[in-house]
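Might you be able to review the protein record set out just below?
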Amino acid sequence: MGAHVALLAELGVSSIGNDASAVQVIRLLEDRVGGVEITILSREPVGAATTFGRSTLDARARWSYHGPWQDSGVAKGVRLMLDLGYLVRLAGRFDAIVVPGTGALEAGQGGLPRGTLLSLLVAGVAARVRAVPYVWLAIGGSRYTRAITRWAVRAAASTATVRSYRDRETREAVGATGTDISDDVLMEDVVTARADVPLGASEDDREVVVVSVIDVPSARGGARATGEEHNRYEQEMARFLARLLDRGEQVRMVVSDAADVAVAQRVVREVTGAGSPGVVEIRVPHDFEELLHDLAGVRAVVGSRFHILVAAALNRVPFVTVEHADKVRVLSDDVGVGAYRVHAHGFRCDELLEAYDSLVGKRDALTRDLDTWAHGARDRALRGVDEVLARLERTGAIS
């Protein structure tokens, strides 16, 4: 009988990056673990079941209270305890619980532990109670500026049987919490383990510039950006699009997260009214496969979302980063386009246009560098997966 493995992540929430990570981990597990049976654990089980077409369970206990105190600290504490008891019972069904890629360790700039980070901790405690191996597979994180967040990360890390990270900064950030990371595995984002890119492109696509906007987070560590932050970001992106259109550039807007659709619509509406020199098509790909096709062979990509930039790099398309998080800064440096980067909370249209023009001027050389990176990234990702599975096999959970 094969191993029964649970994949625990924020899946089925219209995040192409999260779903792509899980799809790739499923492929790798089925290829490398004989007779493996996989169940998805998600806080959005209906969406995850639709997306993956697999057995899916709710990662949270049922919660029927919706009164005036539902957002209070007490209610949230009760909710965590209910989730823990539920997951303790659930964990016993599996031979291992795997967190498949994603930015599960991200806390946001200056942010408090919440959401996926707390879920990571609660699931880890449940796995420890049931003596079920708990695996972090190529997960990403961020710097932690608050003591309580560092404590939560350290506590979550202590529950993991095997830990691996998609970049060195995540590994170092976990180490900075006081966790011993000397035996942890460093690899690439698991999506880079794909072997079927770059994709072919039409002649028309080679003159297209892809721009991808983001529902910009707060620069001050809050849960949401202020209205002023939103307005400034959208205005500068609209000016950038307008400048491209004025020069006769073909522009395509590609959105990889449901949270960004409204932002894309507002920015495009701002620059494509009466008298506009061009039109901008908005594409919302349904999955990573479609995202790859939307970026295949284009002239350049300007964007922020991590897996938009990963998809560009896998297609050997140079990109300008509008940086909003550590992960995109690290990625742009790793693939060789770190010189073409502006900060999402402080850039001006002219600065972004200058970065774009400079990038396009060196496109051929950058494409060659991306090809070298992509081959190396795939090798590093596969080696990391094999090392993680070898360690998991030594626990007896898989064979």
Notes: The chain has a mean pLDDT of 91. Residues 363-394 form the longest helix (32 residues). The longest strand covers residues 37-42. Residues 113 and 149 are 5 Å apart (CA to CA).
